[in-house]
Amino acid sequence: MPNFSYIVKDAKGARVEGIVKADSLDLAIDKLSKEGNTIISVKAASEGAFKGKLSLFDKFMLTIYKLRTRVSLKTLVFFTRQLSTMFSAGLTIEKAISDLEREEKNKKFAKVLRRLSDDIKKGYSLSEAMEQHPGVFNPLYVALVKAGEASGTLHTVLDELSDYLEKIEDTRRKVISAMAYPVFILIFLMLVVWGMFYWIIPKFAEVYSDFNAELPKPTLAAIAASEFVQNNIFGTILLLIVIFFAFFILYLTDRGRYLMDAFKLKVPVIGQVFTNSIMSKFARTFSILMAAGVPIMDTMELTENVVQNATVEGAVRKARVMVKEGYGVANAFRRTGAFPPTLLQMISTGEETGDMDKLLGKAAEFYEKLVDSVIDRLTSLIEPLLIVIMASIVGSIIIVIYLPIFNLGEAISQGIK
Known about the structure:
This protein has a 3-stranded antiparallel sheet. It is mainly alpha-helical and 417 residues long. 76% of the residues lie in helices and 5% in strands. α14 packs across α15.
């Protein structure tokens, strides 16, 4: 006899989820209804999210596809908000999407909306149609739409989803703004150093060669590096492209991605921004999924896919296995050792009171404020620090170039002899 996972509200209004055995989906619904429950969702139970791993080639092709088909989060937020408004105003999903497709200025996204409309006309549900476009609608988005369809509250779910996406976009924007200045300075520094090795050092090398003097070893090393840059400019560019591609492929592997993501969390100061941002996204995602009535195992799977950090994903995966084996949610997350005490306390309290979605929403706000705080401190410290680093590197190169001039008289006398 097959199993069906369910989420219901009992006679007292409490949210209950579990597994029921029945010969068919209809019989499972009848059985739950006769017990006085209000059905939120019932579906065939699976073994959860323990799917087979993709090959490296599949990961590569999926990444390329997502990059080619993706749209900006800002565009997706606007679409979700508009769809919620039009649907709640009484328009059918098909009519709402058709109208939005005609008004959409982004040709790539307009093409996606056209396909959504065509699929819905063929009898697909909105969530099923969205599943065909993973580069635009991620698993979280699809799962929430599916939960809204099952519970009959799609317009409410879409409205909450647009709020969620706006907050995620706001957090991402703050993180990017914190990283933009140091990245700009580092790129500028690389260009300055490259310019010195390509144009300035060769001119000094010509002057020193006329003296026929014995040059200091640091100066000789700088001249040798300059000659390499001049003679291998295309090879250097090709080497940089190969290195970038190698890191890209390495990041697609499980081990490589884990090492890189773990390193990002351990970088002084900047690691705090990444950690708080991830915890904010984790709590916000968990909260909105629980509020939408998504089963706990599916919630944990989707949250794992959303946090976008291999270290935290591994911890969520371990917790999911422990919950499946009978551990409480808070206890499972605590045993992974990857989550801060404040978040664990919120989960524990929410598990006891049945308000996990609300408390995790508050936890998300707490970590969003921490992100703001760290970014404020970061922007005040990083500017002078980067200036010192830039001055040190450029200054060191200049000193190396001018070292022979400090003993110019001796160099000239050696040249005359």
